[in-house]
Amino acid sequence: MTEKALAFIEKNKRRLFFLYMPYTIPHVSLQVPDQYAKQYIGQFIYWEYPEKGGRLAIRMGNGKSVKTDLKKKPDNAWQIFDLKNDRGETTDVASQHPELAEQFDLIVKREHQDPGIAIWRFVEKQILMNPGHVTTAA
Questions:
Q1: Are 66 and 56 in contact (CB under 8 A)?
Q2: Has domain 2-128 been given CATH number 3.40.190.10?
Q3: For the range 97-102, what are the long-range contacts, defined as Cβ-Cβ under 8 Å and sequence gap of 24 or more?
Q4: pTM of the full structure
Q5: In the chain, what's the furthest Cα-to-Cα distance?
Q6: What's the N-to-C CA distance of the chain in angstroms?
Q7: DSSP 116
Q8: Helix, strand, coil abundance in the chain, percent, nearest 5
Q9: Per residue in 45-90, pLDDT tens?
């Protein structure tokens, strides 16, 4: 796919065009053996995905947190999955970990940057739904 995109760019470099290549798969399981994962305790992977209604996801420790359909419902709650015990992401454990939702909102506020692309601007609405949260330095 990348090779085709590069060929397209080369062929059209003298005219205006728009090329969109989404490489991200928002629900791919990112499994790391415990022996390697220990060095990353407390760190996270954060990503934004504008398709399918706008999604946010955070992968931290054994967990993965997702907010979906944010373009229509910017105040949607976090879904939290324990990937160590539920790799298929079938059971939302957010009600068992309410403290994590605020932590994830802070991560979004700290990590999000204006993308400069209109379809990616769904995150700003989500941030505005949580005005009481204050960002702190990592």
A1: yes
A2: no
A3: 100/63, 100/65, 101/77, 102/133
A4: 0.62
A5: 56
A6: 37
A7: S
A8: 30, 15, 55
A9: 888 888 888 899 999 888 899 999 988 888 889 999 999 899 899 9
